[in-house]
Amino acid sequence: MTLQQRNMVIKNTETKKSMIKKAVRVLNAGGIIIYPTDTAFGIGCRIDRPESVDRLFALRKRPRTQAVPVLAGSEAMALPYFDHPSDIVRRYMKLYWPGALTIIYRCMKEMVYSPIRGGGETAGLRMPNHETALAIIRGVGVPILGTSANFHREKTPYRSEDLDPEFVKLVDLVVPGETSAGQASTVVDCSVKPYKIIRQGAVKLGQP
């Protein structure tokens, strides 16, 4: 590696760290960001800011009765939001996290604002396999919303060029980057027995 190339790597690393710090500041101030994950570009705010969640649902034009996924920075960060997680929940975490598996289970309702769980008893969490997303979440210290960065029922943005310019105008920060899977997460509902696959995505699960 030449000196010029080495300096470029250092510069890019510093720029990335600076952007992550900025994203954390925006989220902690109650803001909303668009950020890359392993599956698609997501839009997020802190899980514990109801006013930010309300704004996110409004700008996405998403019905408040339709739950949105939540992204955690680790298993330890996610577990307190589940109500006595079952063995299968813990096993799937061990097997597929970090990765593209969203696990739905009964949640601690007092910790999960109603629209996030669609007014129901469950919440869907996952731990993304993406360095930037994880750095942001861990920097914030709590999970953030991880629904796709598009208007409700519009095209999911798997690349930065897929982002709708009109949608981008509505958020406080766009974190640059790339996705890796280019495919939606698999969603499994472990609140029922046997578990139910809601959506087959990047992680291939067999039927119970």
Q: Give the CA-CA distance, first to last residue.
A: 51 Å
Provide the CATH architecture.
Alpha-Beta Complex
The number of distinct structural domains comes to: 1
Secondary-structure element order, N to C: HEEHEHHEEHEEHEEE
Q: Which terms would index this structure?
A:
10 strands, 208 residues, six-stranded mixed β-sheet, alpha/beta, DHBP synthase
Please explain how this structure is put together:
Helices cover 31% and strands 17% of the residues. The strands form two sheets. A six-stranded mixed beta sheet has the order 6-3-5-4-9-10, with helices on one face. A four-stranded mixed beta sheet has the order 7-2-1-8, covered by helices on one side. The protein has 208 residues and is α/β, with parallel strands linked by helices. It has one domain: Alpha-Beta Complex (DHBP synthase), CATH 3.90.870. The termini are far apart. Mean pLDDT is 92; it is low at 1-11. The chain has helices at 3-28, 50-60, 75-78, 87-96, 131-140, 165-168; strands at residues 33-36, 41-44, 70-71, 101-106, 122-126, 144-145, 147-148, 173-174, 186-189, 196-199. Helix 1 (3-28) packs across helix 5 (131-140). It contains six helices and ten strands; from the N terminus they run αββαβααββαββαβββ.
Structural topology:
Elements: H1 3-28, E1 33-36, E2 41-44, H2 50-60, E3 70-71, H3 75-78, H4 87-96, E4 101-106, E5 122-126, H5 131-140, E6 144-145, E7 147-148, H6 165-168, E8 173-174, E9 186-189, E10 196-199
Parallel strand pairs: 1-8, 3-5, 4-9
Antiparallel strand pairs: 1-2, 2-7, 3-6, 4-5, 9-10
